[in-house]
From TrEMBL:
Its main location: membrane. This is MFS transporter. It is found in: Membrane. InterPro entries: MFS, MFS_dom, MFS_trans_sf. Keywords: Membrane, Transmembrane, Transmembrane helix, Transport. The chain crosses the membrane at residues 15-32, 48-69, 81-104, 110-132, 144-167, 243-265, 277-297, 309-328, 334-353, 365-391, 397-419. The lineage of its organism: Bacteria, Pseudomonadati, Pseudomonadota, Alphaproteobacteria, Sphingomonadales. Residues 19-424 form the Major facilitator superfamily (MFS) profile domain. It is a multi-pass membrane protein. It comes from the Bacteria. Coiled coil: none annotated.
Length: 432
């Protein structure tokens, strides 16, 4: 069937088009359902009596449940296969997200946010693991950036959409925030059912690849080059491996930036006197810019075969943006600096997860990817989202509440630079 380069291009084109658009759509809904609480808070907090501290604590419970269930979920995916397990995850979190429309006080809000974390746990690391079954190392930077592209796009689309849904206030006797949860939760259930048809567990199971294409892909996946894992052996050794904790600290900074702004940015922007719809539209601007930047950054990381600085520099940009919001005034410069924060948070993802997947041995990949994501979400999402609410309630300042983020991302960048020096050069990437 022609040259090696021709079959490579043919196979990877098929794999990319078969898996990525659908997985990106699924992840788009994951982040809409996870973060729409930020837009819902514009009405919901007053309706059910949530203070900043109570709302921050309730929002953070998602990450606590996520932390507890993430590793077990990824191990189950490895055992039963991505097709069934990802379908289960999506159907359950779609139902819980829809049921968020029923919360009536702080306690019910706590329960439902915790339940949402349990339901969604394992989705992101499960997809990262799943993509390693299909993407040779040289394709992972751009692939993971394309997949993670759904995160900022979810807010770019979801913020104006949520603003419009809030305007449905009063229809059929429901508040706008209730319509928001219902109409953004039910499509996820339908996508979960579609997973059963769209996903294939492994290349050998793919009816849409012929035997020669399967053979090439399996060979490319087995060719790991000269890189040596930094974390190997039993999954239980993760907790005593310095490289693992360096990856956790690195990921925590980006996780904190994305989580804090998804929950609190709508309220920060509305404090400038915007309406709900205007808040949704302005809130989407940083996410739109971050969407484009992360694709270009991920492709450049693959093209140059460089991961360490492509991971560290975005973390430094988060620090710059967070500190900058404290020293500027006005809506326009604030939006510009929040854009720096979100560009950094999302440009980080492709290079980091590509790098991390090569630092983990095959025996620890499932547990390792899940443990890194879960622990960093607990620190970055659970702790930092809580801290933001506490500082804001104590000081009245949305900007001062971002200062812990600046310190964390500096530590994250230092962790990447340090541990990256101990890793061998990554394998030469395959070319598209």
């Amino acid at each position: 069937m022609g040259s090696e380069g021709a079959i490579e291009a043919q196979v990877m084109r098929k794999v990319m088009w078969r898996l990525l658009p659908f997985l990106m759509l699924c992840y788009l809904m994951a982040f809409i359902d996870r973060t729409n609480v930020g837009m819902a808070s514009l009405q919901m907090n007053a309706d059910i009596g949530l203070s900043s501290t109570v709302f921050g604590f309730g929002a953070s419970l998602f990450f606590v449940a996520y932390f507890l269930m993430e590793v077990p979920s990824n191990l189950m995916l490895q055992k039963v296969g991505a097709r069934y397990w990802i379908a289960r995850i999506m159907i359950s979190w779609g139902l819980v997200s829809t049921a968020m429309s029923l919360v009536w006080n702080a306690e019910s809000f706590y329960v439902m946010r915790f339940a949402l974390g349990i339901a969604e746990a394992g989705f992101f690391p499960g997809i990262i693991l799943y993509l390693t079954y299909w993407m040779p190392p040289g394709y992972r930077g751009r692939t993971l950036a394309l997949f993670a592209f759904a995160i900022p796009v979810s807010s770019f689309i979801g913020s104006p959409l949520s603003g419009l849904l809030l305007a449905m206030d009063g229809i059929a006797g429901l508040r706008g925030w209730q319509w928001l949860f219902i109409l953004e939760g039910l499509p996820t259930v339908m996508l979960g059912v579609a997973c059963l048809k769209m996903l294939t567990d492994r290349p050998d199971d793919a009816s849409w690849l012929d035997d020669e294409e399967k053979a090439w892909l399996n060979s490319a996946l087995a060719a790991t080059g000269s890189s040596k894992p930094l974390v190997h052996g039993s999954a239980w050794r993760l907790a005593v491996t310095p490289a693992f904790w360096a990856m956790v600290i690195a990921c925590s900074g980006a996780s904190a930036a994305g989580s804090m702004l998804s929950v609190w940015q709508p309220q920060l922007l509305k404090s400038f006197g915007l309406t709900d719809l205007q808040t949704g539209l302005v809130n989407s601007i940083p996410y739109g810019i971050a969407s484009v930047a992360m694709i270009l950054w991920g492709r450049n990381s693959d093209r140059t075969n460089e991961r360490r600085w492509h991971t560290a520099l975005p973390l430094m940009l988060i620090t710059l943006g967070a500190v900058g919001t404290f020293v500027v005034t006005g809506l326009v410069p604030t939006v510009m600096l929040l854009t720096f924060v979100l560009v950094g948070a999302y440009c980080f993802k492709g290079p980091f997860w590509s790098m991390a997947s090569t630092w983990l041995s095959g025996s620890t990949a499932a547990a390792g990817i899940a443990a890194i994501n879960a622990t960093s979400n607990l620190i970055g999402g659970g702790l930092m989202v809580n801290a933001y609410g506490f500082i804001h309630e104590a000081t009245g300042s949305y900007m001062l509440a971002l200062m812990p983020l600046a310190g964390l991302t500096l530590m994250s960048a230092a962790a990447v630079i340090y541990v990256g020096r101990t890793a061998k050069k990554q394998p030469v990437p395959l070319r598209v």
